From TrEMBL:
One Gene Ontology MF term: ATP binding
InterPro entries: AAA+_ATPase, ABC_transp_ATP-bind, ABC_transporter-like_ATP-bd, ABC_transporter-like_CS, Oligopep_ABC_C, P-loop_NTPase
Cellular-component GO terms for this entry: plasma membrane
Keywords on record: ATP-binding, Nucleotide-binding, Transport
Predominant place of localization: membrane
Cellular compartments annotated: Cell inner membrane
Family: Belongs to the ABC transporter superfamily.
Keyword Oxidoreductase: no
The name this protein goes by in its record: ATP-binding cassette domain-containing protein
Highest taxon in the source lineage: Bacteria
Domain ABC transporter: 5-262
GO biological process, one term: peptide transport
Protein topology in the membrane: Peripheral membrane protein
């Protein structure tokens, strides 16, 4: 079965120059920030692929490009074989729009505070003309509220009358309203209490099983990702440094950055494994280090790492790593 989502060599550069007059007076050159560079991955139908990485590594930038909220500078996004960048207004593209939805980190900011919940959830149903007549629409809204384990009567309330976890349920109900097949989730539980987090993650997994949903799941939290994803991509400074199956990534991490992230996870099994804090800071993305951009923080870095950027080496289909030390067997 071909993958539903195919992202190849996707890049996005932001112009972060000062205003023209400042540049002229200070003789400052234009400045560009490469938020995402050369990102390639694919997601099979019904699969969850996760992107992890520290803040600023470019996860949200990739998510926004995949759903079409942000234009890509370079690269290709194919969903069910339709090229999202080339087919802006074609019928194929209009059909796709209904089938792709996004869930954001901040459930309150993504809900209109002046609309009642039933109107919020009905909006995609109306926009895509999925039900005929007010009665059918309100029945469907009730059904969606029940799907996310809320009460159909909750539709009469406003977003501020709910807790954070309940609001994220409303966002999920709205996302499901258009009967999507592919959902991009950008840190859907990061703003929530840990206990509520688990409930929402379990709900998302149940919904995935029920409707055969495909997820691109984004989080900075490896424990969350482990719970959700079959395959994981680790991002560092706008690039994918390692892609592996979840079991492989946690059992046998390759890239020194992945190892560093894993060593920082609290040891819940109390095996006595020493826990190491993540060392160093992410360099300025406007002026990234030459060679491998991780080399200033890498315990294995040598001369080659400081000069030459490691290529992403595919190991098995759809997995791989970009690291000289791994390639040379020094890791
Ligand atoms: N519209 C923009 N204009 C300029 N720079 C931007 C813009 N959006 C993002 N960036 C920059 O691109 C880089 C990647 O940002 P992005 O939001 O994708 O990171 P992230 O991995 O989602 O981080 P977080 O975990 O904090 O959400 C950051 O350095 C950010 O400052
Ligand atoms: Mg983000």
């Amino acid at each position: 079965m071909p993958p539903v989502v195919e992202v190849s060599n996707l890049s996005r550069t932001f112009d972060v120059s000062k205003p023209w007059l400042n540049r002229v007076l200070e003789r400052a050159p234009k400045a560009y920030l490469k938020a995402a560079q050369d990102i390639s991955f694919s997601i099979g139908k019904g699969e969850t692929f996760a992107l992890v990485g520290e803040s600023g590594s470019g996860k949200s930038t990739v998510a926004k490009m995949v759903v079409g909220l942000l234009a890509a500078s370079e690269g290709e996004i194919r969903i069910d074989g339709v090229d999202m960048r080339k087919s802006r207004n074609t019928a194929a593209m209009r059909g796709l729009r209904r089938r792709i939805q996004m869930i954001f980190q901040d459930p309150y900011a993504s809900l209109n505070p002046r609309w009642r919940v039933d109107r919020i959830i009905a909006e995609p149903i109306r926009a895509f003309g999925l039900e005929r007549g007010e009665q059918a629409i309100s029945a469907r809204v009730g059904e969606l509220l029940e799907l996310v384990r809320l009460n159909p009567r909750d539709g009469a309330k406003y977003p501020h009358e709910f807790s954070g976890g309940q609001r994220q349920r409303i966002c999920i109900a709205r996302a499901l309203a258009s009967r999507p097949e592919f959902i991009v989730c950008d840190e859907p539980t990061s703003a929530l209490d840990v206990s509520v987090q688990a409930q929402i993650l379990n709900l998302m997994r149940d919904l995935q099983d029920e409707f055969g949903l495909t997820y691109l799941f984004i989080s900075h939290d490896l424990a969350v990702v482990r719970h959700m994803a079959a395959r994981i991509g680790v991002m560092y400074l706008g690039r994918l440094v390692e892609v592996a199956k979840a079991g492989e990534l946690f059992g046998n991490p390759q890239h020194p950055y992945t190892r560093m992230l894993l060593e920082a996870i609290p040891d819940l099994n109390m095996t006595g494994r020493p826990r190491k804090a993540v060392e160093g800071e992410i360099p300025n993305p406007i002026n990234p280090p030459p060679g491998c951009s991780f080399h200033p923080r890498c315990p294995l870095a040598n001369e080659r790492c400081r000069i030459e950027r490691p290529a992403f080496l595919t190991r098995q289909p759809a997995t791989g790593v970009a690291c000289h030390a791994v390639e040379e067997g020094r890791a």
